[in-house]
């Protein structure tokens, strides 16, 4: 148990119970970092309210009952009743040494491991992924990794759009160009071009449009020849997805794809159940559910259309089937939807209908982890000059190109051979794009700005990658293996102490991401670590430190920093080059 906040929380809770009885065991010790000490406990204030007494008296009583001599100097009361803690240097050093021996780096397994369905990415097949899907993909993958790191069973779920009316048009276009043509091969490399060509034919040739509509009917009717073509299309699209995920270092595989089509057979059952439960009514010819609490601007109840007036199913019917599948077949305790905030109303209504229908039993959490919009530097939705959503592939290659530029500044080209330099540029470019995305709160709009993400200044991917490369170079210079350091740390200088204390909180930062599904918290933490390391390295000589024991202790701190940064970036899915 290395996380100082958790240790203090336990001790203060003990003191609360000892002083005021087990009836108050639920009181939150409210441990916060403090400007005047390392941490403060704010528990006395709410306790004073509950007990009808003065906060400072409560704080004094708690201090009397507190048993912290082994970890902290004598706690003191400050302000209206805060209890300040200044941790002992030897305790911090001992904990840091323990962390260095701990393969889990202080990550504590969840008390109640859950099955968590993590839905993310979910692009529409045969259309190129755009920056909106990019964000869901990157953020979702980091959430999935953090959940796994704390011991949850994660079922990744890529809810791709692989069904629906546009497939009639795509299949007809595939037939027109020929299955083995160069045009068809575009599906593997530039699916957007394929989609656009099909769209143009659909919009300009009435005969093509008519054929496309007939094709949709055949597809939905399960016509074998049509299904074969559809399967062909899917196969090629998956190649595109596979390659994109590999470039992005995202852990999604083919096995994680459960697209809209997957639920096709379940749709009649979903609708029948809603009808049997008396929840579905016909409105304007369509079968609808009106979940309570959802009204339009005009104050009229809003429907979830579960079957269209032409008796066809839609996006909502599929999402309802998906909920049932996640609960009944995947046995989830928690389902997270890493999906754009523009779908907030849709998903809220899907969850509401599902709860009404009894498909989400109490205790099972369904949450929409909203993804904010991606904006260009002009503050509007990111678009190409032609007004199109920016395709992912061009974005990624530009990132890698720009990374090459900042690596040149660093003089990296003088050290590495061209092959290695290519690999580093890719790590830095992809890492910068991913990190920029991850370090912004996922639900806020995010400005896609090359100059701010591909730089060594500030809370950026390159800055953190460079911090790890710099630590590695310390060890290289000394001819030492960073894995071989002796786990003996000491904290003497202030910068050393601050860094060591921060490193102890790694596990807590990871747990927090798993709980809140907010990777930007881990980014903030890692940035703090890297900044504290920079200060430490400026103020404390490492290789020149005397005596040898101090040099060893500082090398150990360097190694621990390296391990935390590498593990943290790994959990974020940000690649870490060994040299830069
Ligand atoms: N394919 C959809 C889109 O690109 C996103 C799917 C969101 N997930 C869901 N369960 N509805 O807009």
Describe the structure.
The protein has helices at 4-20, 44-51, 55-65, 89-101, 131-149, 166-177, 182-189, 191-204, 206-220, 224-248, 267-276, 315-328, 344-356, 392-410, 412-415, 418-439, 450-453, 461-478, 494-503, 506-516, 520-539, 548-572, and strands at 31-33, 39-41, 76-78, 82-85, 115-119, 153-157, 280-283, 286-289, 304-307, 334-340, 365-371, 374-375, 446-447. Helices cover 54% and strands 9% of the residues. The chain is of the alpha/beta class. It is built from 22 helices and 13 strands. Helix 19 (494-503) packs parallel to helix 22 (548-572). The protein has a 4-stranded antiparallel beta sheet with strand order 1-2-4-3, with helices on one face. Among the domains are: 4-87, Gyrase A, domain 2, CATH 3.30.1360; 165-248, no CATH class; 461-572, Isoleucyl-tRNA Synthetase, Domain 1. The longest helix has 25 residues, at 224-248. Bound molecules: arginine. Residues 119, 122-124, 159, 161, 319, 322, 337, 339 line the site of arginine (ARG).
* Multimeric state: single chain
Shape: globular
Q: Please give the count of helices.
A: 22
Structural class: alpha/beta
Roughly how many Å is the radius of gyration?
Answer: 28 Å
What's this model, at a glance?
With 580 residues, the protein is of the alpha/beta class. The protein has helices at 4-20, 44-51, 55-65, 89-101, 131-149, 166-177, 182-189, 191-204, 206-220, 224-248, 267-276, 315-328, 344-356, 392-410, 412-415, 418-439, 450-453, 461-478, 494-503, 506-516, 520-539, 548-572, and strands at 31-33, 39-41, 76-78, 82-85, 115-119, 153-157, 280-283, 286-289, 304-307, 334-340, 365-371, 374-375, 446-447. The relative contact order is 0.10.
């Amino acid at each position: 148990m290395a996380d100082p906040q958790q240790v203090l929380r336990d001790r203060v809770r003990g003191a609360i119970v000892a002083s005021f009885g087990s009836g108050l065991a639920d009181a939150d010790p409210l441990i916060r970092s403090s400007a005047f000490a390392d941490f403060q406990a704010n528990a006395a204030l709410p306790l004073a309210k509950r007990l009808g007494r003065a906060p400072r008296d409560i704080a004094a009583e708690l201090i009397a009952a507190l048993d912290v001599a082994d970890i902290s100097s004598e706690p003191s009361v400050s302000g209206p009743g805060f209890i300040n803690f200044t941790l002992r240097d030897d305790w911090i050093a001992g904990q840091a040494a323990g962390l260095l021996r701990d393969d889990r780096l202080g990550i504590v397994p969840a008390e109640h491991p859950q099955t968590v369905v993590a839905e993310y990415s979910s692009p529409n097949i045969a259309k190129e992924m755009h920056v909106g899907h990019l964000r869901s993909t990157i953020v979702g993958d980091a959430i999935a990794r953090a959940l796994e790191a704390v011991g949850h069973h994660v079922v990744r779920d890529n809810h791709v759009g692989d069904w629906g009316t546009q497939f009639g048009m795509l299949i007809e276009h595939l037939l027109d160009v020929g299955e083995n043509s160069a045009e068809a091969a575009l599906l593997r490399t530039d699916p957007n071009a394929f989609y656009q060509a099909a769209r143009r034919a659909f919009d300009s040739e009435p005969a093509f449009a008519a054929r496309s509509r007939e094709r949709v009917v055949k597809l939905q009717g399960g016509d074998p020849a049509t299904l074969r073509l559809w399967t062909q299309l899917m196969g090629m699209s998956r190649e595109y997805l596979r390659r994109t995920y590999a470039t992005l270092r995202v852990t999604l595989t083919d096995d994680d794809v459960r697209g809209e089509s997957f639920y096709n057979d379940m749709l009649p059952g979903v609708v029948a159940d809603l009808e049997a439960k008396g929840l579905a009514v016909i409105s304007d010819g369509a079968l609808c559910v009106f979940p309570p609490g959802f009204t339009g601007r005009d104050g009229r109840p809003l429907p979830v259309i579960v079957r269209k007036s032409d008796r066809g199913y839609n996006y909502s019917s599929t999402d309802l089937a998906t909920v049932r599948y996640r609960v009944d077949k995947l046995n989830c305790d928690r389902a997270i939807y890493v999906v754009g905030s523009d779908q907030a109303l849709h998903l809220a209504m899907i969850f509401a209908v599902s709860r009404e229908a009894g498909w989400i039993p109490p205790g099972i959490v369904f949450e929409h982890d909203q993804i904010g919009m991606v904006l260009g530097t002009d503050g509007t939705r990111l678009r190409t000059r032609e007004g199109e959503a920016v395709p992912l592939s061009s974005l990624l290659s530009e990132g890698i190109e720009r990374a090459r530029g900042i690596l040149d500044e660093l003089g990296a080209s003088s050290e590495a051979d061209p092959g290695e330099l290519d690999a580093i540029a890719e790590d830095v470019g992809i890492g910068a794009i991913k990190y920029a995305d991850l370090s912004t709160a996922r639900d806020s709009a995010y400005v896609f700005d090359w100059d701010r993400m591909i730089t060594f200044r500030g809370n950026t991917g390159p800055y953190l990658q460079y911090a790890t490369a710099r630590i590695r170079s310390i060890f290289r210079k000394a001819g030492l293996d960073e894995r071989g350091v002796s786990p003996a740390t000491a904290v003497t200088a202030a910068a050393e102490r601050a860094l060591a204390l921060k490193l102890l909180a790694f596990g807590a930062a990871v747990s927090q991401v798993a709980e809140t599904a907010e990777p930007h918290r881990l980014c903030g933490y890692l940035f703090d670590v890297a900044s504290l390391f920079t200060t430490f390295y400026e103020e404390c000589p490492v290789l020149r430190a005397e005596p040898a024991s101090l040099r060893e202790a500082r090398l150990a701190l360097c190694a621990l920093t390296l391990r935390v940064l590498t593990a943290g970036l790994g959990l974020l899915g940000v690649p870490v080059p060994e040299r830069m």
